[in-house]
Amino acid sequence: MDDKIFRVINQFTGRYHLVDIFMIMISKKLRYVFAFLLVIMWLQNNFHKRITSFAGISAIITLLITSVIKFIYFKPRPFSKHWVNLLAPVPSKKDSTFPSKHTTLAFAIAISVLFYKRTLGCIMSLLAFLAGLSRIWMGQHYPSDIIGSALIGSIVALWVNFLSNFWDPIITRVIHTYNRYYS
């Protein structure tokens, strides 16, 4: 089933030049858009600094979880098992397809923002979805990799938010120190 859904999506790769460019752009540049948005939020007020801090914590934990999973579990990428329509940049064939670092990070940050800023969080969640779709479109991940990665990023963001009382003293100290030296 995973392979069939992958082929349904990936069959259009290379047929629609503008969509290919858009998917490559989303895949390669979305991290910069998210970083820019987080910097803008950080520079506003303490409430926005708090949101940015939760997103940063979620991103760091997600990176750690992703690294551990990739270290202990290997699943070959679609292009290493089958002929697929592939768009550059092509990752190393030695790298596991699950989880997708692009997708886990995008969802961890988007869901963290969604808790506090609905409109921006919804926009970022849509972009995170497009990031995952772009990885399938480009021939680098299976749909199950993207769904699993979205779940990992979202669950981490939920967990960080649920444990906000644990993180509050750390975040408060970071914000206080930043404001003391840079405001």
Report what the structure shows.
This protein is an all-alpha fold and 183 residues long. The protein has one domain. The chain is 76% helix and 0% strand.
Q: Secondary structure elements and their pairing?
A:
Blueprint: H1 2-10, H2 17-42, H3 46-72, H4 78-81, H5 101-114, H6 118-137, H7 143-162, H8 164-182
Helix pairs in contact: 2-3, 2-5, 2-6, 3-5, 3-7, 3-8, 5-6, 5-7, 6-7
Can you summarize this structure?
The chain is built from eight helices and no strands. The chain has 183 residues and is mainly α. The chain has one domain.
Observed structural traits:
0% strand; mainly alpha; 183 residues
Number of strands: 0
Structural class: mainly alpha
Rg over CA atoms? 18 Å
- Topology as a string of helices (H) and strands (E): HHHHHHHH
Tell me the helix content: over 70%
What percent of residues are in strands? under 5%
- What is the count of distinct domains? 1
Instruction: Describe the main β-sheet briefly.
Output: none
Distance between the termini: 55 Å
> What coarse outline follows from CA principal-axis ratios?
elongated
